[in-house]
Fold this sequence. Notes:
Helix content: 25-40%
Structural class: alpha+beta
Amino acid sequence: MAPPWQMQKGVSSGNAPLSDSPLPGFPLPPPRVTRRRQRLSGSGWMTARACPAAPSKARACSARVMVAATSPPSGLGSSSSSKSQSIAIVGAGPIGSAAARHILERTSADALAQVYVIDGTQAGTRGSHHDLARLIRAADAEGDAKWSVRNAASLAAFAEIERESGCNFFHKSGALVVGPRTFVERAAKAAQTAGCELELLDDVRERFAFLTPATGCDAALYDDSAGWLEPNAMIEAQLEYARRRHSDRIHVVPAAVQSIEVLDSTGGGSGGVFVELSTGAMLVVDKCLVTAGAHTRALADGMVEGKLDGVSVSRRTVALLEISESTAHELEKVMPTLKYRFEEGGGASVSGNEQSKTEATSVYLLPPVRYDNLGGRYFIKIGGGPNDLMPENVSSEEIAEWLASGGDAEMASKLADIGRNLLGGVTFANEGHETMACVTTVGSDDMRIVSSPCKRVTAVSCCLGKAAGPADAIGAEIAKHVVGISDRCIEVERKFAPPSDLQTMRESVSRLGGGLDSEKVTRFVDEYYDVPSLALVASDCWLRTRKVVEGAASSSWELKLPVDVESRSGGEREVFREVVGLEHVASELAQILHEPSLSADAWKGVLERIESENSSTTLASIAKFATERFTFTLDDCSIDVDSADFGHAVMEVEKLVASPDEIPGAKDEIARIASSIGATPLPPQNGGKLLVYLRKYRQDVIDVLVRSGILKE
Length: 713
């Protein structure tokens, strides 16, 4: 009997540094190829009759052009039969630098040859991270467990990053969340979800006598492992860590980005992304990741087809309260970072989501920081207040103008007053304050990582003003999205009995710091194919097309191949290599089946005809069924709870690895995750969806598996 949540919507399958010379070894895309051009410069999509327009433009840059080879965009995988890929990361801030390191860590040199991190700072581009201090704590003020998990993971990673890079950036001052009891308890609950047990204080003044919070706003949550970081030093640490481990694969390009253009492979050619730089150079890569903060939407909006709709840039103002050097040194010993809600019932009259309500009724403060650009004086930084939204179509020039303005004088005065009232036991150097302008991106309850339809461009936005601290964890999330299930990677999985209900599963995963990713609740139809002789089945190779009916995933061709590891579960392999994408699958089929009349291009034509006409004389369908999938994430593993339309349900715990050396560790990790959520192994006579389907409907295929020694019956 399938669980009661099975197939709720009735999806059915019908069954039951910049060089002055070109980089060596990276040719330009072939000239005189008709391609569709998609331009990203805030103005949407443009179509041209094209031809060698972009390549000739690149050549016109002469010796200043930087070029990388391009490959089909279905993933960052590798094999001897495909070119290595390259990626440009637009924005060398906390997120961009972290993403660069994690992408390098998740890929081999064969899979991803070059990562170009484009740093606009030296070209005068200013972002919200261009300050000396950002806070980090496990307790999310809005009570969002996802952000608490990101913060806790980043805090845990700081020691390694500092050690391996030789760059120090984190200051362990501790952190306080101060305000009404309900506000504090909400943050405490989020921290507990991330596995952090913090200290609740009934009256913060008993521990921190220099604080004088408003009546009813004196409860507190204390985290002694938290503190603040220097964002520019953290960026350098991430990049240096990456250089030390992947020196021949990472390049920092000091330039701003003028435009981004995508050439797809329509009509031939391999396609690619052209990134035009302020230096006049053109960077040609396979993929582009835009992590440009407030500038991201202006650069990438036209490519991601409305996925950044509703994201706005919010004007933010910071006040700096000056203290003497001696006072600063005393406070450094006792002052944590603070998040302070300064009124009871805060946010009730504020429209918008919880982030908007929290910002309107709270401020943050950092311990004393020495500002060399302000004469070497010491200041306590305070920020917060209601969101002040710019138009959704705001330009980079308008953002730059705001950042250069110094902020809103009236808001700065309000912030300064709140800071002085809270820090009643602190002696300030004068009655005035300095101001700075900042920006955040807002518009939904969580960060957005979105891609263009062709998968060549990914954009990150809507970080809600909280991304600098947990940037390392965010970088890891982005790397998973960009690298994804690579066109050629190793997947390690184990199948388990499905949970009795989703709510129990959700509670178990949430308690451990994971959660249900609503973007990955999908309904899809899988159809498996083989040649008439069942040669693929006899080799334990599985060719399928997955058509997504509902959900964020995209449809694709996939080919699962055995890895030289004898490891099976329920009659099926636990470890296999997965090839994704029409071109890569076609290339692999040509090598596996050795049909003289079927080259890679011919196989590509066969697969395309199945897509367009749903028929083929070369391949025949051997299985077809629909699945409803709920995906949970926990640590580096995915947990898929599947229910098929022929009455079978199963749970899979899986992890992707880049090389066979990592397989034993992945198996241990899967076993740990399974144990922690109380998963029950499948009995030997049971199996995954495909095996159960074949036993039920295709005994001829089962017979081939048995004769080939693949399956023991």
